[in-house]
Amino acid sequence: RRSGMGRAMGLAVGLLLGLLLVPAVLVSTSFRRGAPPSEPTPEPAEWELAWGAVPEDSLWPLPQRLRTSGRQLQLAPGRFQLVHGAGSSLGPGCGLLEDAFRRYYEYMFGQSRRRQRGHRPLGVRGEPELWQLQVVVESPDPGCQSYPHLASNEAYHLTVTDPVAILKADEVWGALRGLETFSQLVYEDDYGSFLVNESEIDDFPRFAHRGILLDTSRHYLPLKSILTNLDAMAFNKFNVLHWHIVDDQSFPYQSIYFPELSDKGAYSYDHIYTPTDVYLVIEYARLRGIRVIPEFDTPGHTQSWGKGQKDLLTPCYSGEQPTGSFGPVNPILNTTYNFMTKFFKEISSVFPDAYIHLGGDEVNFDCWKSNPEVKEFMKERGFGIDYAKLESYYIQKILDIVSSYNKGYIVWQEVFDNKAQLKPDTVVEVWMGKNYAHELSSVTEAGFTAILAAPWYLDYISYGQDWKKYYSVEPLNFTGSEKQKKLLIGGEACLWGEFVDATNLTPRLWPRASAVGERLWSNRNVTDLRDAYKRLTNHRCRML
Amino acid sequence: RRSGMGRAMGLAVGLLLGLLLVPAVLVSTSFRRGAPPSEPTPEPAEWELAWGAVPEDSLWPLPQRLRTSGRQLQLAPGRFQLVHGAGSSLGPGCGLLEDAFRRYYEYMFGQSRRRQRGHRPLGVRGEPELWQLQVVVESPDPGCQSYPHLASNEAYHLTVTDPVAILKADEVWGALRGLETFSQLVYEDDYGSFLVNESEIDDFPRFAHRGILLDTSRHYLPLKSILTNLDAMAFNKFNVLHWHIVDDQSFPYQSIYFPELSDKGAYSYDHIYTPTDVYLVIEYARLRGIRVIPEFDTPGHTQSWGKGQKDLLTPCYSGEQPTGSFGPVNPILNTTYNFMTKFFKEISSVFPDAYIHLGGDEVNFDCWKSNPEVKEFMKERGFGIDYAKLESYYIQKILDIVSSYNKGYIVWQEVFDNKAQLKPDTVVEVWMGKNYAHELSSVTEAGFTAILAAPWYLDYISYGQDWKKYYSVEPLNFTGSEKQKKLLIGGEACLWGEFVDATNLTPRLWPRASAVGERLWSNRNVTDLRDAYKRLTNHRCRML
């Protein structure tokens, strides 16, 4: 009863098998892709050998450099410890790392029903025991109390051999990534023994900005959904939550200075994020090495702002008469800038990240064009009939406000396209699907930093394994100098909320976003779909 | 950051509002679509009036005839009763109805947090109180202990006026449908009062067979997912679970006679349906007036059968040599028919429904063509090189077996297309997307009963509100006489399992399948998308 497509096996079959498919005896030492580009790409035959035969078959995203041997070590859940290693600049005083130790212990051993039968002896096959994972953070300023940022060092080095494994990282953020990788190496065999292969891993991200966009305006997302998503992000080494928190449809952010914005602009009194909620999201993210960048998009996409803030939006006219409808933020009033000054002062203080996303996309000029006072203002300023100039005028003032609070900012590509005067450190997010490579060329040629979102709009769904499409994107495939390429700092998988709420967020986003996660973390030459399919199947099973 | 599509509001917004949007004061009597075709279709202006102003704004599927007034009645959760009415042929001895009373009481009042504050007085606005819903089942053989079947009478008549509402039905199945409708009429206002408008409803299904296909072979579905789906089906007045229980990928049905089929053919020992599981599904469905029609598809789609039943499948050849691969069921061996006789004896006894779905789709002839013994058999029988004749030969024998157990059968359209000799009472399910109207003409012209699935393959997903596409299908839009039209007994929404498992089943199927539910239940002239959108939004909210 089905077309040819019907016979394709689902991505998710692996999950139903319950256990990772790892054979009991491994004999070969294998080297994997992700080796430096100077090494030859492995031949297909080598992959045949590796198929289903090595524990890194469930690593995701694939580390940059990886070496494993067939030599297995056993872990006894009752004895195994995650500890601070000798010489580490961090100790029990680092709550972030202590919390991560507990979390990863639970991921590795907590799911096992067998553990509940009490203290079990090790398997009888005589493998040597791995007693500890010692975590050594080397920098004198390792970042335990601070927030992750764009320049955070996420590199780590992991050596797994008996009697103890060593995880070394410069900063605590690298230690978090290494803990995730270590937990992915540990597996449970059919007899309930926990095993890990002798391994050595040297790893670091390819791109510094690896984001997930969640949209809490089109549909409200309960706090639990957001936190669950942060867990999934950590499993995939994402490090930025781009929180598209408000939009035309609703204003769930509860402002301290302007509580009427959510009182009147949220879907209901319950569908808001209180200051405590926001703090919880930020702290939960920080503990996982994830930045929270809020987006307060203006001057368009602001219908919900108008409900709780009088005179903020532009009244639209039909001839001489106001229609009763409102357009974008009114850019000609001082009161607008007074409001924004105060509002962004709050935002700058509530959100610790060095960046705020200021939106600036899809500004519809029709309402501005209809308004006699706006037209008069255009004349006075000598803008003629070029409303992009008015938009730039507005944006420029917002950028100045936000700059004054020592924040950097990200804008959608139209702000660049419309030739707003941007400070050199502006980050431009490229979202339009058509010719995004050309846009990346233009943005970086002009010297701006760029983030790529265009090919990764995950709200656009279709039948079948579309993760392959996302996986096959090569972000640096655009025309430009080496210097330009360096200006592309990463990308984002965007899950817009028109058709997403708590009922379908997780299965719609994961593991599809995992494809983007590997693209942004792993080496450029990690592109084999068949190998990725196998690892992603196991990875999904583990995430579930 | 989005195309024009981006501005579309999601179908699901309603859910976030938490409460049904029903204003407190209603004054007009309204008549709704669903009236007999002889009545004039209401004018758009009338709909403007009705928009957001009548309680039946959340009825789904829309009853055939409906009249409500603005007169409101109050229900006191602590006092209101669902009871057997005077003259009913059913009483407390009917567990099915008692169970339904409890269930619908819970749906109407159980969710209310306010109820937990104890026995509350009625609202102070002085509405008259509705004390009871009296259910009167009139037939002397109302079906309480039996199973629903194709000819079950699901019609009911509901009168809501103080002091008691009366629900009359010929059979218990109609009472179940009426209880669902009554529960949809009751709403809670902003002050926690439960209200219902005076109403009169006369309702019956347009089509007798209204099915949902679930596929538990491509992905195993835990029992809980299947039961949850049966609840959702009852909310939408579906009455057939087409259980596509096994296929190439896995054989989760645990057979009593042939336990090796699932021992070796299921994804794992855990991923099976035991006899108890199957019984639970059938009984849970029966209590909701839902038939369970199992599909055991042969001779194709049977790879998983081969694992636990030696010599059942045809060995494929390359030249003179067996390749080690297997094709469809081997139609030339007596052992095949011995197996099928015993197997379908079990199936006929385990599943009480009068029908079994025998599949018969997508038989690939390549393997049969390669096998020397099959070729020899073709020669002996005088089939020439027409393998459709061999397929028909096989199907004919299976039909005879199943007939001998007094079961009817449903087959996919190829069995008809390939000109198998079918008994006149065969039901043909039309699934191929191209020219399905033409296929309906052919099938019914040949005098066979038909079920339509083709336009309702809900596993094919796409961006946006595709429920409108499913909703806009008119099943009787095919060329044929009145007699032919009567042979189309209904349709099915199919959710094939390649990309569906417990993580996404519910949000992927509902409320998209609700569109099919209304198409199969309500009057042909209920086609207004705007009205449907409004009701469906509220219906989704209630289902959640």
TrEMBL record, chains A, B:
Which residues participate directly in catalysis? 362 (proton donor)
Where is it chiefly localized? cytoplasm
The keyword Lipid biosynthesis appears for this protein: no
GO terms for biological process, alphabetical: carbohydrate metabolic process; ganglioside catabolic process; glycosaminoglycan metabolic process
Write out the annotated subcellular location. Answer: Cytoplasmic vesicle, Secretory vesicle, Cortical granule; Lysosome
Enzyme class, spelled out: hydrolase
Query: What positions does the domain Glycoside hydrolase family 20 catalytic occupy?
Result: 207-523
Describe its function: Hydrolyzes the non-reducing end N-acetyl-D-hexosamine and/or sulfated N-acetyl-D-hexosamine of glycoconjugates, such as the oligosaccharide moieties from proteins and neutral glycolipids, or from certain mucopolysaccharides. The isozyme B does not hydrolyze each of these substrates, however hydrolyzes efficiently neutral oligosaccharide. Only the isozyme A is responsible for the degradation of GM2 gangliosides in the presence of GM2A. During fertilization is responsible, at least in part, for the zona block to polyspermy.
What is the protein name stated in its UniProt record?
A: Beta-hexosaminidase subunit beta
Gene that specifies this protein: Hexb
